[in-house]
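User: I'm new to structure prediction. If I give you an amino acid sequence, what do you actually give back? Let's try with this one:
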Amino acid sequence: MPNTLVSAATETLSYTDDGRSLTFTVGAQDIASYTYVPSDDQYESPRPFFHPLTTLEGDEVTISRPWDHVWHKGLSWALPNVGEHNFWGGATYTRETGYANLDNNGAMNHQAFTSIEDSGSSITATETLLWTAQPTAAQATESGEYGAPLIARPLINEQRRFAIHLLPAVNAWALLFETTMDNVSGAQIDIGSPTTEGRDNAGYGGLFWRGPRSFTGGEFRSDNGTGADEFMGTRSPWIAFTGQHDVTCRKSSILFVEDQTNPGASNQWFARSSMFACLGSAPFFSEEVPLKVGEALTYRYAVVIADGPLEDERAAALAAAATSALDAWV
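Assistant: Good question. You get back a string of structure tokens that encode the predicted 3D arrangement of the chain. For your 330 residues, that looks like this:
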């Protein structure tokens, strides 16, 4: 089916809050939901996530809790190797164990929205989160109190901002994302990936997107050209992916832009077209990054959701528009 031209700039942007999630709407179309109080099992490293994300035409571009990796949650900030802790979900990969269930799945706990501001063309939410380690049975023994509740140990304070931003471009909108992580554990935490632990080409961890099943076999595009799984681990200021939907048979695209002030920018991308479609910023892909006490780390990105495929000129134009929006978002 052909795409209908829709300009977000001519529509009204609004949001609702049900006490567990924020839902953002353009005109009559819900385009994003942000679950900030998840009900996930500890094994899935509970954390806030965006799902569903849809195009302005209403095609859904995320999947959440797929059977093969139930800890994949639409689009989320997720890190598998945070010192000895896992904030990705599932098994942890280490040099000593390979993949193993280590009872180390932490949680990113929403504390509060300190502000939600509506400028007309964008809505920005500012959020505080506390990252905690998985409680262990040993803590109950140490407390000396039979039946005492387990206390999750604080590790990281996070200040997070995100914005749903209407682009002047037809058939596209952007999600702007910023995280500042402050170590409160009392000791340095080295953030890495399965690759820094010795598993080749498995540097996932960062702002991670999982696409619909029908997107498998789709096409990546960046200033390096076009292709598929060969984009794994590449570096570029932006990267896009186009897939095709079941039922409507339309195509949609997602485009990531990295703020070039990020530590190590341009960082590597975790990009996979098969076995399933996924894409993520991966600033800890090949080298551990130390999160020192008193020295916070900040990362910023823009994620564009677009109806239709992205040819070279349109991809570059959307990347430029997203970069400008990110630069102006201070």
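You can read the tokens as a compact description of the fold. Here is one thing that stands out. Helices lie at 137-143, 312-328.
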